[in-house]
Design brief:
The chain is of the alpha/beta class. It contains seven helices and six strands. The chain has a six-stranded parallel β-sheet, with helices on both faces. The chain is globular.
Length: about 190
């Protein structure tokens, strides 16, 4: 089955380390012409500030529409609001657990639940290690429901020269996974 190119994407941000993935994802989605809808947990906003020295307004300025995590009545909480994909970058184990168990206790986890029930692409960039058995079982549950677990593990076969290059390639791989036209992950060309 062929997929059409993604044009409306929800980006969730949680408190796990790796805020740079969310910012780069939002930048690349904008550059690709995708409409972006952002929802960041309070811990996600704190982590963006801690890791990147950006405040909530600066983060929200990277998206077309931004919502409070407590706004459970927002458009993205409904299956009638058509979206092509949702990426939670980074995804904490708490958020993973909430998605795996259908808790929908805030807008971020409700939007993820909608993606699963509507059979739309959901990608979780889980960012905490090592994994314990509960983490692995939650990842299995989300996978069985149709979600994609995508830990941002760097690829080294293309001989990256910087952390920025590693982040960029990981984000390009996610963009390709959700069907964004023009995504350009590096491919293995042999050594």
């Amino acid at each position: 089955m062929s997929r059409s190119a993604a044009s409306r994407v929800i980006v969730g941000v949680t408190g796990a380390s790796g805020a740079v993935y969310a910012v780069r994802l939002l930048e690349r989605l904008r550059a690709s012409g995708c409409e972006t809808h952002l929802v960041a947990s309070p811990a996600g906003v704190l982590n963006v500030h801690h890791e990147l020295a950006l405040d909530r307004k600066e983060l929200e300025a990277l998206a077309d529409v931004a919502y409070s995590a407590s706004d459970i009545g927002a458009a993205i909480a409904s299956g009638s609001f058509a979206t092509d994909a949702m990426v939670i970058a980074p995804c904490s184990m708490k958020t993973l657990a909430a998605v795996a168990h259908g808790l929908s206790d805030n807008l971020l986890t409700r939007a993820a639940d909608v993606m699963l029930k509507e059979r739309r692409r959901l990608v979780l960039m889980v960012r905490e290690t090592p994994f314990n058995l509960a983490h692995l079982r939650n990842m299995t549950a989300v996978t069985e429901m149709g979600g994609v677990i995508f830990p941002p593990l760097p690829a080294f076969y293309h001989r990256p020269q910087s952390v920025d290059e590693l982040v960029g390639d990981t984000v390009e791989r996610v963009l390709a996974l959700i069907g964004v036209e023009g995504a350009s992950p590096k491919s293995w060309g042999g050594l």
